[in-house]
Design a protein that fits this description.
The protein has 467 residues and is of the alpha+beta class. It is 51% helix and 19% strand.
């Protein structure tokens, strides 16, 4: 019998049947598992001659897709592990110096420096051979005696001045400003550890307003001391009729108070990008999100939810509106990694080969099923926690100012740029693998998310123990 123009040839498993405009069938033409092979249009070549069944897909293409996706996923995980390996903290042992630089009077620049107390003790004691200072200060620190810590620091002010002023300096007109350490000193809790605040006045040459402005340099607690790595000095300044923020480290130890807007943007943009690139926990969280996403729409939705959530808490925490202790935040970040990976592993266990199916009814191209919306809510909640981690790593806890808000937003843009790059690198080969070798894609994503789950649980236990 010649087929009609509106007939369809369909396949269900190993059975094939014509799907006419009317009549009884062994199975519905639009039921799950039914594949439309071709519409038969009289007078035209059969579509079957132009389209091959998935069963005839070349084995070589499937193998290539499997290898490509596996290499990208596993490579991303390995780069994260190698680049940020640390036992209990994914950010390593580092420290943040806080510096508030202002014009005290004509020709005098004042810098209020916040230094981590126990790090200051061991650094000053070692560099200046001040054993008495170290022993007395360490005993007060062990006892949590803040008045004693302050008193001991003031008693050894000259020793501290030799260390601090040799590594923190101000220049004007190409000439050094002479620094002196002032009284009093003050010790208080910041970032959940004792910090000592010292005030240094820098008297500059008469011609202080130059084309280059004032140049501030910080080399405090360098890597060469081997006590911490990658110390950052967060500077907020109001000098030379200029206000702004800057971040100094070993790669960029100096800045000018008259730096351009483009230089300030690039500085905080790269700081945000570097933070995500060196934050193994955040990278693995993203990998688990991408591996567990069934369609591009789900990747876009979950990434957007994560971005909005962590942006909210990041800015609130950096401005001091919320300040949860890291002893709570860090274990929760690790737990969120394990939870997102475990979500997909549970779906694999329950639905097997149908784990990556996304079935919606009359929802349009941007619809999600109930599991997708539930996962979106969970990711948003975890994003709020990760935002607190971003703020803690940046180390800014200042009162609100528009300049500070702009700097925070730029830092966040840097984070999002790297996040988008990871999605662009990981998701396309994964999508290709699902089309070319579906069963292999389930194995690859299952193995990767299982590894992420194990790492998350290890970090969770370690961070609880460390706290």
């Amino acid at each position: 019998m010649e087929p009609r123009s509106d007939d369809l040839i369909v396949r269900h498993g190993h059975l094939s049947e014509r799907c006419p405009a009317a009549g009884h069938l062994l199975f519905p033409c639009r039921s799950p598992g039914v594949e439309i092979v071709w519409p038969v249009i009289p007078g035209t070549p059969s579509t079957a001659s132009r389209r091959r069944s998935p069963r005839t897909t070349p084995i070589l293409a499937r193998v290539a897709a499997t290898v490509l996706a596996a290499l990208v996923l596993l490579g991303t995980v390995l780069v994260a592990l190698v680049g940020g390996a640390a036992p209990a903290s994914a950010h390593g042992f580092s420290s943040v110096v806080y510096a508030k630089v202002t014009s005290k009077e004509s020709g005098v620049v004042q810098a209020r420096l916040g230094l981590e107390y126990d790090l200051m003790l061991v650094s000053v004691g070692t560099s200046e051979h001040a054993d008495t200072f170290y022993r007395q200060g360490q005993a007060a620190w062990d006892d949590g005696d803040f008045p004693a810590m302050t008193r001991i620091a003031e008693q050894h002010r000259d020793t501290m001045a030799d260390y601090v002023l040799d590594r923190f300096s101000v220049r004007s007109g190409g000439r050094e400003c002479r620094g002196t350490l002032q009284e009093p000193m003050h010790v208080d809790m910041q970032d959940e550890v004792p910090y000592v605040e010292v005030v240094a006045d820098f008297r500059c040459p008469t011609s202080s307003h130059t084309a280059a402005g004032h140049v501030v340099t910080s080399k405090l607690f360098p890597d060469s001391e081997t006590f911490v790595k990658d110390t950052k000095t967060i500077v907020t300044y109001a000098v030379d009729s200029q206000e702004g923020s800057a971040t100094l480290d070993a790669d960029r130890p100096s800045f000018s108070t008259e730096q351009s807007a483009g230089a300030r943007f690039w500085e905080f943009f790269t700081l945000g990008a570097e933070h995500l690139l060196t934050g193994i926990d955040h990278i693995l969280f993203l990998v688990a999100l991408i591996a567990g996403s069934r369609r591009l729409r789900e990747v876009v939705f979950t990434a957007s939810a994560f971005t909005i959530a962590h942006s909210i808490t990041f800015i609130l925490a950096a401005l001091g509106v919320v300040s949860p202790p890291s002893i709570v935040v860090e274990p929760l970040i690790a737990l969120s990694i394990a939870a997102v990976a475990g979500w997909y592993l549970w779906r694999l266990f329950r639905r097997r080969s149908h784990a990556d199916e996304l079935i919606v009814e009359d929802g349009g191209r941007f619809a999600l099923d109930r599991a997708g919306w539930t996962r979106l809510a969970v990711v948003f909640a975890f994003g709020l926690i990760h935002g607190l981690g971003f703020a803690g790593a940046l180390g800014i806890h200042e009162a609100f100012s528009w300049q500070l808000l702009v700097s925070l937003l730029i830092f966040n843009v840097g984070i999002e740029a790297v996040q988008l790059a990871i999605i662009v690198i990981v998701f396309p080969p994964l999508s290709l693998l699902r089309r070319k070798a579906h069963r292999a894609s389930l194995w690859v994503t299952g193995i990767v998310t299982a590894g992420v789950f194990v790492m998350g649980m290890i970090w969770f236990v370690e961070r609880l123990a460390a706290g």
